[in-house]
């Protein structure tokens, strides 16, 4: 008795990808995400400051603004360090 041919397609081999993607893309996404978070929190903070007296929403927007600023600064530092690292690697490659 013969076995029927396997008609199922072969699954793709996931280990064919040998290199990793550029780390600049996640840094840029983080940078712009933090920028949007900070901008929205600042807008919300300014909007709630016009109300009379302190409120819970005002405190939440203030906290969001501080977290957004911290993320924004961290992402900016990350981007600068990556750009410096790639520049140094490029210069080393030219000198070798």
- Report low-confidence residues grouped into runs of 5 or more: none
The H-and-E topology, N to C, reads as: HH
Tally of DSSP β-strands: 0
Shape annotation: flat
Number of domain units: 1
Highlighted features:
96 residues, mainly alpha, 2 helices
Structure description:
- With 96 residues, this protein is an all-alpha fold.
- The protein has one domain (23-95).
- Helices cover 69% and strands 0% of the residues.
- It has helices at residues 24-49, 56-95.
- α1 (24-49) runs antiparallel to α2 (56-95).
- It starts with 23 loop residues before the first helix and ends with a helix.
Explain the layout of strands and helices.
Layout: H1 24-49, H2 56-95
Helix pairs in contact: 1-2
Summarize the structure.
The chain is mainly alpha-helical.
